[in-house]
Each structure stands twice: as C-alpha cells, then as structure tokens.
Design goal:
Blueprint (H helix, E strand, L loop, with lengths): L6 H4 L10 H11 L2 E5 L4 E3 L7 E7 L2 E6 L5 E7 L4 E2 L1 H4 L8 E4 L3 E7 H5 L7 H28 L4 H16 L3 E3 L4 H7 L4 H13 L3 E4 L2 E4 L2 H7 L6
Antiparallel strand pairs: 1-8, 2-7, 3-6, 3-8, 4-5, 4-7, 9-11, 10-11
Helix pairs in contact: 6-9
Length: 234
C-alpha cells in the first residue's frame, strides 16, 4: 500500500512530529499499517472492546462518547484529520470505556501497538523518536482530560460555553472559526440540554459577545468573554 499521499498529514500528528518523509517511509515499511474507511455513523471502537492498534484519522471526523448508566452519552472528544485515538488504550490491559463513531465519512490508519513497542532489530533512530512522541502524546492527553474535567465541573453553562469558545479560538488561531460539532454534539460535549445551549448562545449573541450561525462562531469581545469564566451566573 502506498502511504506517501498521507505523509504531509502524518508529519503533523503527535506521533510523527519532527520526522522526515524518509523516516516515515522506514517506519511504515516496518509497521505495515492498515487503512480502513467508514461511513458516517459507523463504529470504529465499541465500549468494552479491546484495542491493539493506535488509530490516526486521515479524513473526516470522529467522536468518542462515554455512556452513562441511564443510557445517555457524554461526548469525551471529537477529532479531525491528524487526531490520534486508542493509543493509550492499546498499551493497557483495559477495555475501551468509550464508543468511537464516525461523525462524517472518514478514513483511519491503524498502527499495530506491539510493533510500536517492540522495535525491529535495526532499531531505526526514527523508531526511538516515535516512542518519545508516544510518551508526550499520552502526557498531553492526560492534561487535556484534566482541562475537560475543569470545564465539566463549572456550574454555569455560560462559563462552560465561554471556556469552550476561547479554547476553540486559540486552537484555530483566529476569533472566527468553525466546529465539526452539531448543536446536539456540542450540547453533549458541554453536558447540557440542546435547547438550553441554544438559548444561552442566543443571549450571548444579543449581548454582543459573539456571532454564531450553525457551526460558525465569531468572538466579538474576547475580554468580556474571558470575564464570563469568573462570573457566577445562574
């Protein structure tokens, strides 16, 4: 299989950052990964499954949802091209606590975890770099989870929305950005009712904090939006 068309994307991922095309070619020749395509709504990983491969989103987007005892689900994360998933799970003996679903038609590349952790006899320098990158990726995900927990324990929906908007703007590098999440998906991510989310976004727009249309957002007053994080709103 020819992976070269995906090299530019792979080099932006947390696992392959800092590598050249030649180093990628060497690693992929050793790992012999597979690529699989999914239709929207198809499951990539089911709660309770074991994983032995780390996945990289090549096209489209995916979501990971954790089910509650009452049958409802909370969106843990969403990923677009370059997102790495199941990397932490593949290195453990635990079963998946989340279900990963194709949010859109998508494609994912899978790396056999045992080959990542057991280098070939040649012990290519790129393999050592990959293992360092893996440790950094897991560390980054730990702190991202901690940040997500801080968001979810906010009592005010306004505060949760403000934190999310500021984080997304920083990630996009612009005060105007789009999200792959639908309103329902965003409500799940913020752990709130969809109608309550729409009402609050409407109020924030009326107050001149933001402009929003479907999946597009524009922050109009970043200083006032930051202040929402500290206010105790009902």
């Amino acid at each position: 299989m020819n992976f070269e068309p995906h090299y530019s994307l792979l080099r932006t991922t947390s696992l392959f950052r800092g590598m050249t095309n030649n180093e990628l070619e060497t690693l992929l020749a050793c790992f012999r990964p597979r690529i699989r395509r999914y239709a929207r709504g198809e499951i990539l990983l089911l709660t309770g499954d074991c994983a032995r491969e780390a996945g990289i989103v090549l096209e489209g987007s995916i979501t990971a949802v954790k089910s509650a005892t009452d049958g409802t689900g909370v969106t843990v994360t969403h990923m677009g091209p370059g997102g790495v998933f199941a990397d932490v799970l593949s290195g453990s003996s635990q079963k998946s606590p989340v279900t990963v679903t194709a949010e859109t038609d998508c494609a994912a590349l899978y790396l056999p975890y045992d080959k990542v952790m057991r280098p070939c006899p040649c012990l290519h320098p790129a393999h050592l770099q990959l293992m360092r990158n893996l440790v950094l990726t897991i560390s980054d995900k730990y702190f991202a989870l901690d940040h997500r927990l801080e968001l979810l324990i906010c009592k005010s929906l306004r505060e949760r929305i403000a934190i999310w908007l500021l984080d997304e703007a920083e990630r996009a590098g612009s005060d105007t950005f789009q999200t792959p999440l639908t309103r329902a998906g965003l409500a799940q991510y913020l752990n709130c009712d969809r109608s309550a989310l729409s009402r609050e976004l409407g109020r924030m727009q009326q107050e001149g904090l933001i402009e929003t249309w479907r999946s597009s957002f524009k922050i109009l007053d970043k200083n006032r939006l930051r202040a929402q994080k500290k206010e105790k709103l009902p």
